[in-house]
């Protein structure tokens, strides 16, 4: 591991160092240029580079010689389209990056492709930007990708957008044409709830009009030039000012080298943290204090902030995994299985309801499916909205997604890095989007109860990791469910006995034990939810002691497992459904008929426990 950041100076053997204050630090801003194909994005950037004197020495002559070689007239766009096949085809395929300066700041310009087939490249470029310039051809007007890109910029959380109406020379510098495009495009963006542009600027990129200087051909325009408007954009506040977010990437322990440290590693995306801070890992709700900040061949430090990849040791051993998010307790992320999102679909096969996909958000990855399809927008149509039951290629959509397991996330309006995600179909990244709202699911109240309980939990002097090391296994819940008389107790007792003979520490509990004890005060018409809640809390108490809990109950069925899981948090659990009829279709870890031999079932359950890393 090493600590690195783009904003400070490091050497191979050094830790974080404060930048040399004797060197003037100039402000930098990332700007993306987007728009429909052939609307002049690359020409705009090339002209800005030339007019601000930002071209590398000899670059202009080199491009002119290349134009002579290919028999093409010189174009400013070729200053950006460096790839040979791009120059041959006259389109931008990849996302080019270049730099220019004004008196106020340094700019990193990202020139994104406008062709619909390279939409994925455009999104990857725009995702790194703080502001955007969107190009519209005055002669062609608002086109398909003009609308699509406007929606995507809003999806990516880019709030500062300037629209340049280019090629005004081709429409006789007509103010009427310009005003018509502004009215049409603002109405479209407002209709779909996308970002509202800060300003529309009429330009002729080829001749440089209203880029750096006013134009005598458009005296009716009284606004700022493109360069002046760029300089008036606000720089994003430092990420260190936001709440702490560090998605866990890996856990290291170098015991073979005599190093007993257990190091939790990841990249701090926002906020800062120091030694002694109490932090919480979500969604497991585990709280602990930072013992030390670790790095490879780095000087010791007591505080570290956004932009650094680093490691931590903790005040006590806790079990956490990749995909958890470290934060301060007062500003923890949201946790749940449902959220509202805006997505764009790029897969060749349509995204369909009822199908499972995989969502990757920060370092977490888990199965996901569409819970509800709210609306689909087709950018090729002016009115935008379509009544569809699936999301086709290049469609943008407003959906409620549901994950199989609870994940930690934020609204993208609050913290972008934990509010963005991609969706994988098979082995391909097929879509991406942003989270716009949290949506309550059936277990939200139980998760809130569990979080409050875990935050206030009074820990003993022996941690769960120490217990696991002593016992030789992690705690886990194995629930045998099914109707009365199908053999739940028989299989559960056989499993408990087999695990005990293997040197494990199992404990059998039947729902009747809880019902006659903890639930004794409940009336006969007590709600099923309360029975499940109390069973889950009893299970949690036993699991924290480190045992493998084997349970059977007639009061709690397969449908209640998700509620129990919400209460026991990240403790592993297995559900064994005994169904002689063969009609059950609800998800479970293992389904048997009840006619199987005890030894065969014990063997299969043991293999599942091994697969989950319990034993």
Quick summary:
With 615 residues, the protein is an alpha/beta fold.
Chain-wise SSE layout:
Blueprint: E1 28-35, H1 41-51, H2 59-70, H3 84-89, E2 96-101, E3 106-111, H4 119-126, E4 131-137, H5 144-155, E5 160-166, H6 175-192, E6 199-202, H7 226-231, E7 246-253, E8 262-267, E9 272-274, E10 278-282, E11 286-294, E12 303-305, E13 309-314, E14 325-328, E15 334-345, E16 351-352, E17 357-361, E18 364-377, E19 385-386, E20 390-391, E21 396-409, E22 420-425, E23 428-438, H8 444-455, H9 464-471, E24 476-481, H10 488-501, E25 506-510, H11 511-516, H12 528-543, E26 548-552, H13 561-568, E27 573-578, E28 590-592, H14 598-611
Assigned CATH superfamily of the largest domain: P-loop containing nucleotide triphosphate hydrolases
Overall pLDDT, averaged? Answer: 81
In CATH, what is the class of the largest domain?
Alpha Beta
Structural class: alpha/beta
Low-confidence stretches: 1-23, 82-95, 114-118
Overall morphology:
elongated
- Based on DSSP secondary structure assignment, what is the total number of beta strands? 28
Strand order, sheet with most strands:
2-3-1-4-5-6
Which percent bin holds the helix content? 10-25%
Instruction: Report how far the terminal alpha carbons are from each other.
Output: 29 Å
SS element count, helices? 14
Strand content: 25-35%
The CATH topology of the largest domain turns out to be: Rossmann fold
Largest sheet: 6 strands, mixed
């Amino acid at each position: 591991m090493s600590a690195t950041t783009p904003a400070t100076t490091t050497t191979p053997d050094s830790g974080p160092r404060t930048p040399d204050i004797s060197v003037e630090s100039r402000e930098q801003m990332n700007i993306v240029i987007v728009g429909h194909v052939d609307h002049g994005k690359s020409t705009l950037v090339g002209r800005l580079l030339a007019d601000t004197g930002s071209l590398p020495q000899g670059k202009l002559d080199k491009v002119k010689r290349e134009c002579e070689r290919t028999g093409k007239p010189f174009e400013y766009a070729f200053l950006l389209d460096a790839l040979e096949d791009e120059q041959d085809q006259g389109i931008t395929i990849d996302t080019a990056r270049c730099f220019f300066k004004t008196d106020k700041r340094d700019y990193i310009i990202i020139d994104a492709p406008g062709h619909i087939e390279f939409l994925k490249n455009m999104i990857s470029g725009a995702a790194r930007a703080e502001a955007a310039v969107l190009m519209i051809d005055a002669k062609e007007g608002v086109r398909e990708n003009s609308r699509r890109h406007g929606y995507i910029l809003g999806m990516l959380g880019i709030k500062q957008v300037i629209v340049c109406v280019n090629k005004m020379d081709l429409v006789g510098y007509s103010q009427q044409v310009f005003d018509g495009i502004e009215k049409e495009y603002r109405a479209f963006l407002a209709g779909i709830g996308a970002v509202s542009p800060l300003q529309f600027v009429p330009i002729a990129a080829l001749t440089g009009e209203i880029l750096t200087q006013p134009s005598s051909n458009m005296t009716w325009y009284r606004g700022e030039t493109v360069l002046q408007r760029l300089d008036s954009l606000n720089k994003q506040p430092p990420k260190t000012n936001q709440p702490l977010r560090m998605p866990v990437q890996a856990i290291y322990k170098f015991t073979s080298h005599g190093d007993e440290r257990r190091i939790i590693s990841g990249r701090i995306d926002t906020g800062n943290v120091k030694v002694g801070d109490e932090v919480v890992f979500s969604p497991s709700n585990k709280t602990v204090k930072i013992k030390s900040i670790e790095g490879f061949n780095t000087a010791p430090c007591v505080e570290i902030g956004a932009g650094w990849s680093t490691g931590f040791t903790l005040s006590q051993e806790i079990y956490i995994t990749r995909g958890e998010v470290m934060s301060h307790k007062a500003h923890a992320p949201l946790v749940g299985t449902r959220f509202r999102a805006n997505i764009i679909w790029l897969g060749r096969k349509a995204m369909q309801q009822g199908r499972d996909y995989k969502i990757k958000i920060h370092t977490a990855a888990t199965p996901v499916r569409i819970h509800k399809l709210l609306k689909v927008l087709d950018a090729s149509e002016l009115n935008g909205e379509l009544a569809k039951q699936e999301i086709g290629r290049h469609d943008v959509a407003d959906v409620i997604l549901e994950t199989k397991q609870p994940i930690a996330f934020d609204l993208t309006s609050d913290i972008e890095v934990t509010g963005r995600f991609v969706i994988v179909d098979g082995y391909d990244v097929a879509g991406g989007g942003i989270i716009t709202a949290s949506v309550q699911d059936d277990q939200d109240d139980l998760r809130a109860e569990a979080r409050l309980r875990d935050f206030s939990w009074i820990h003993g002097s022996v941690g769960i990791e120490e217990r696991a090391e002593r016992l030789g296994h992690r705690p886990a819940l194995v629930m045998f469910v099914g109707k009365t008389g199908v053999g739940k107790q028989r299989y559960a007792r056989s499993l408990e006995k087999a695990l005990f003979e293997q040197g494990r520490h199992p404990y059998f509990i039947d729902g009747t034990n809880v019902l006659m004890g903890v639930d004794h005060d409940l009336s006969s018409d007590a709600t099923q939810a309360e029975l499940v809640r109390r069973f889950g809390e009893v299970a949690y108490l036993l699991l924290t002691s480190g045992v493998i809990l084997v349970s059977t109950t007639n009061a709690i069925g397969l449908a209640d497992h998700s509620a129990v899981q919400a209460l026991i948090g990240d403790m592993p659990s297995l559900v064994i459904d005994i169904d002689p009829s063969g009609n059950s279709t609800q998800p479970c870890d293992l389904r048997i008929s009840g006619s199987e031999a005890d030894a065969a079932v014990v063997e299969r359950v043991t293999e599942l426990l091994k697969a989950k890393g319990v034993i």
